[in-house]
């Protein structure tokens, strides 16, 4: 879960649910980081709307600006600091009453320090304290003093809060099913910023998915930092996935992010037996060498991971796989780096999220190891990984040419309004002519061309 960019640019506005609403004060929400943060921003929008606040997509019209942040790497935090500069200048020059708030993982990681480091920030709120937002905003109004709540919880799942999907395309929705992570991987800040694992009540998840289907959504992505370790009493992740798949054959189901240790036989069988559970699994490996995986405290060896992939492909033929890779972890030798390249060449993922190791304070790695791989070496190794994976993704996509896929139409293509985009069951983005089609339809598409990231196709009649 590691993409970091403002999210508002690429939506098909025609399908935007009319979530903009008026209120005594209007809030502009900007989301950085992973899908979990997108889902959290929908919870924040709901809490504030219920407290009478309006929502606006225009930061220049807002009375309150909230940045929902990511702390996964240093550059993610630097991006937020630059954005705060912009809003600080706006506050000084145009709107001294503007309230600026920092939410999410950076707020939780830095806590009160953020107020000292970042002048003119009014509120700092951690991922488990969003119910408290109206009170904190009121406190700032009343006292003019800044307000903070970064209390982590062992119970909070926001299960009773109906997300306001103000940024959704109306077809595909995120459903957060659990929060926190107990894995403590050596490089990762998430357990410190999101706390211990807790799972939502299964019934509330199934009801939310039913509600989404009734509202016209045709795809749900079940979210959790370690989604396949979900458990609500006797209901484990495989059982939950099975129950959601029974709602309608027209509802596609995806999930993210998994940990290899929780990729159970039962889960793979649900993939095999339930056609609307998408034949796609994002299974982060992080590295190709067992010694490095041990130092990363990932809990599996490279051979065990390779065996899991072989087994997954046996149970789910044609399954599309993607992963996460870190280059340049503490102490990584050239030979260990070569093992990552060898693993990518052997497994041939359709896609991968690839990053340089970025030391995060308080993590096991920061406390026990030295970040000793020079930046230039990290950069060179990362570029070798990206070059190799890009050629593999392209070769895999070239094999798609001539194949026919069932595509769920999501909306306008970024390339041209005359074209639409949608994804295959295997999570590949396809571009095709709009014709008389519209979002939410399932269409048969014959693949006619590709790049390493995108497929192109022609819609088949009937
Ligand atoms: S599984 Fe590891 S990498 Fe993923 S969120 Fe948990 S601690 Fe971080």
What does this structure look like?
This protein is of the alpha/beta class and about 450 residues long. About 35% of the residues lie in helices and about 20% in strands. Helix 12 links the parallel strand 15 and strand 16 (about 350-355). Helix 8 runs parallel beside helix 9 (about 265-275) and helix 12 (about 335-345) packs parallel to helix 14 (about 375-400). The longest helix has 24 residues, at about 375-400. The structure holds iron/sulfur cluster. The site of iron/sulfur cluster has 10 residues, from helix 6.
The number of distinct β-strands equals 21
Spans of at least 5 consecutive residues whose pLDDT stays below 50 are: 1-19
Distance between the termini: 38 Å
Briefly note the structural class of the backbone.
alpha/beta
Strand content: 15-25%
Q: Describe the biggest sheet?
A: 6 strands, parallel
Shape summary: globular
Bound molecules: iron/sulfur cluster
Rounded to an integer, what's the Rg over CA atoms?
Answer: 22 Å
Instruction: Provide mean pLDDT, rounded.
Output: 93
What percentage of residues falls in helices of 4 or more residues? 25-40%
